[in-house]
Amino acid sequence: MKTYERISNQQRILDGMEKVHDKLIEFKRKMKSELVIIHDNKIIHIKP
User: Fold this and answer.
1) DSSP 8-state secondary structure symbol assigned to residue 37
2) What residues make up the domain containing 31?
3) pTM
4) Which end of the chain has less Cβ packing within 10 Å, N or C?
5) Considering the domain boundaries, does residue 3 fall inside one?
6) Over the range 15-29, which residues count as b (16 or more CB within 10 Å of their CB) and which as e?
7) In the beta sheet, which residues pair with residue 45?
8) Is residue 35 part of a domain?
9) What is the pLDDT of residue 7?
10) Side-chain half-sphere of 18: how many Cα atoms within 13 Å?
C-alpha cells in the first residue's frame, strides 16, 4: 500500500472542513433543527 504525504494546502483544507463540521453541529443544536446524514446508504434524521 502506498503512503502519500499531504501538502500544506491539503492539510489546511482538511482542517477547514473539520472546523465547518463542528460549526454546523453547533448551529443545528442552537436552532434545535434536525441534522440529516447518510449512514450505510440510508438517510438518517437526528433530532437535537
Assistant:
1) E
2) 8-46
3) 0.68
4) N
5) no
6) eeeeeeeeeeeeebe
7) 36
8) yes
9) 85
10) 6
Torsion of Cα atoms, 10 then 11 then 16 then 22, to 10°: 130
Q: Tell me the CA end-to-end span of the chain in Å, nearest whole number.
A: 41
Q: For residue range 1-48, what is the model confidence (pLDDT) as tens digits?
A: 667 777 888 889 999 999 999 999 999 999 999 999 999 999 999 987
Q: Alpha-carbon torsion 11, 16, 38, 26, what sign? A: positive
Cα 28–33–23 angle (5° rounding)?
Answer: 5
For residue 45, the surrounding DSSP H or E stretch is strand 42-46
Residue 2 lies in a domain: no
CA-atom Rg of the chain in angstroms: 15
- The total domain count for the chain is 1
- State the alpha helices, DSSP H only, in the chain: 8-31
